[in-house]
Amino acid sequence: MKKDIPGKGAILQRDRETYAIAPHIPGGITDTATLRKICDTADKFGVTALKLTSAQRIALIGIKEEDLDSIWGDLDQKPGAAIGLCVRSVKICPGTTWCKRGVQDSVSLGLKLDALYHAMQLPNKMKMGVSGCMLSCAEVAVKDIGIMGTPKGWRIFVGGNAGARPRLADLLVDNVESEEEVLEIVAKVVAYYRNSGCEMRIGKIVEDMGIEGFRREVLGG
Ligand code: SF4
Fold it and tell me: Does domain 6-75 correspond to CATH entry 3.30.70.1730?
């Protein structure tokens, strides 16, 4: 019986025969040349549908197993980390780059996080989100690591998810003034999780330790 093929970023479809792939598009920000390449490749390989995903990707659906290597080759990409135990996606809102309500540069911070962490292997899946203001269009309260822009800086949440056992994230740190400090804190959280031995999502650790215990353990002080 056929299964997902994580090494090829291939997700078995409901017909139990064909696959979908989802090329990595950091922050969902792309250009017309990339879109043309995706469309031309989709036509060449008889893709049956294109689906915009909640992770800001474009899924190509209905691919034959024997075409998987060639289609990634034509897209000129390594398989995206749409499945598997890794950092799956960093959802990024338009922030001060484009949105009139933005108070922080979520695109800049989000793309840095994406470059650092996308596809990093971890004990379980991890989703991140970065919102440029407190309206939180990137839904940071249900991300494993969520970062929200406020007029005073950045607010970092940890332990959320919107899965079968949903959990609202806890506030880890508030009023973080610079991107560099946010990146340092996220690095500590990811490193702690990576070495934790926990096979559940990071929210389980936060739940077991309590947010104050987690903060003390991971950030000290
Ligand atoms: S979270 Fe704020 S800055 Fe980001 S898209 Fe929504 S309203 Fe705009």
Answer: no
